[in-house]
Design goal:
The chain is an alpha/beta fold. The protein has five helices and 14 strands. Helix 4 packs parallel to helix 5.
């Protein structure tokens, strides 16, 4: 775990977004202390060009800390991870790894139950369990690209649940204070689960119909720093 310098404030504002798909410069972001992007910041083509621009955009954001997790469309991070990581210099990149920021312990994982032709696509069941078993029990903030099963994981009220059952088990085991994710655009929102765990689906790109898209507001969560 990497440890970064703490500031003096007792309460931290965490600004959360996901699934910008190349539209990051169209976002209007609020003030905060820690910025989180939970994946799918690239497009399916021009990945090198979009990553360079995304990194430049990150460098201009007014946050003390920036943390990024990849998503299933961020193919470069799966196909050429060393090159992708060299290009992402303006944020801490988490991939089945953690970092301590301002006293909060973060863990990030990009795995989702999507076809293996996509980035970080892993089958449900035992194949995904080996990733979720790595989540430490002392995690304060869990960042994943995909949602847990039956938590903000459906495109609409009639759609099937797309979340990962093994991730749900990991969340219940690790008991983070906050779980941030995206991937399922229609699941955008927040809710409180068992034992007061806060769940945030911050997928900002909204499908408006007829091929039109819009951008939702970032999610802002306030957390007290552990004493």
């Amino acid at each position: 775990m990497v440890k970064l310098i703490m500031s003096e404030r007792a309460q931290l504002q965490i600004v959360c977004i996901s699934d910008t798909h190349g539209f990051h410069r169209e976002m209007t972001l609020p003030r905060g202390d820690i910025f989180i992007h939970a994946g799918d910041f690239l497009t399916d083509d021009r990945q090198l060009e979009v990553l360079a621009d995304f990194n430049d955009w990150l460098g201009g954001l007014p946050y003390r800390h920036r943390i990024v997790v990849a998503g299933n469309h961020d193919l470069l991070f799966a196909s050429n991870p060393s090159k992708a990581r060299r290009l992402l210099t303006n944020a801490v990149y988490l991939e089945n790894s953690g970092v301590t920021v301002e006293g909060l312990r973060f863990w990030g994982c990009p795995v989702t139950p999507v076809p293996s032709s996509m980035a970080f696509g892993v089958e449900r069941g035992a194949a995904s369990r080996k990733y979720w078993d790595k989540v430490p029990t002392e995690t304060d903030v869990l960042i994943t690209h995909g949602p847990p099963f039956r938590v903000l994981d459906a495109e609409n009220i009639l759609a099937p649940h797309m979340g990962c059952e093994q991730l749900t088990r990991a969340v219940l085991r690790a008991q983070p204070r906050l779980h941030i994710f995206g991937h399922v655009h229609g699941g955008y929102g927040r809710e409180t689960g068992p034992d007061g765990i806060s769940f945030v689906n911050c997928a900002v790109l909204a499908r408006l119909g007829r091929g039109e898209f819009g951008l939702r507001q970032p999610m802002v969560v306030e957390l007290d720093r552990p004493s």
